[in-house]
Amino acid sequence: MATVEALLLAPGAGADRESPALVAVEQAVAVPTVRMDFPYRREGRKAPDRAPKLIASVREEAVGLAASAGVAPDRIALGGRSMGGRMCSMAVAEGLPAAALVLLSYPLHPPGKPEKLRIEHLPRITVPCLFVGGSRDPFGSPEEIEHHTAAIAGPVTHVWVPGGHSPKGQDAAIAATVADWLGSL
Fold first, then answer.
1. Would 161 be classed as within a structural domain?
2. DSSP 151
3. Separation of alpha carbons 101 and 128, rounded Å
4. What is the sign, positive or negative, of the torsion defined by CA atoms of 178, 69, 122, 104?
5. Residue 111 within any structural domain of the chain
6. What is the count of structural domains for the chain?
7. Of the candidates 94, 68, 82, which has an alpha carbon nearest to the alpha carbon of residue 6?
8. CA angle 91, 96, 97 (to 5 degrees)
9. What is the pTM of this model?
10. Is residue 1 part of a domain?
11. Which domain holds residue 96?
12. pLDDT tens digit string along 131-168?
């Protein structure tokens, strides 16, 4: 497995780069980290762009991080919270080089709509993946996520913390989990 030399973190749809969970992860890890904003946030809009534009911005940020940190693109871990992590996983499934994926509160499906799964790209992921989520997340229960992420070709680690989609009071535990996992690769 590739050593992780940098980390790119993307926020959820309703947040920006200052999301407390992302800040906590950046402070906990021992590698250069960039917390990105998606274009719609930088432009002052609340509604996310469509996936192709979001994925393109992940690619752009990853290329910029590789250049600024002086590391190979396949030595960067990509990820983030909810939609941000999902866009990173889709970019990697489309061929963006990465060392690993860090997926916090992965949105497996919209709340109350378990039939609308967001899993088509999962079998094309070959890098190690960390899923950290709330034990009562309406976007996907631990059982649902563990079942569907079995389709991922790379090694998958699941860690569950008390709480819902934004597990309250868990930022330090989540950050420590990410730091330990990245250090183990």
1. yes
2. G
3. 6
4. positive
5. yes
6. 1
7. 68
8. 135
9. 0.96
10. no
11. 6-184
12. 999 999 999 999 999 999 999 999 999 999 999 999 99
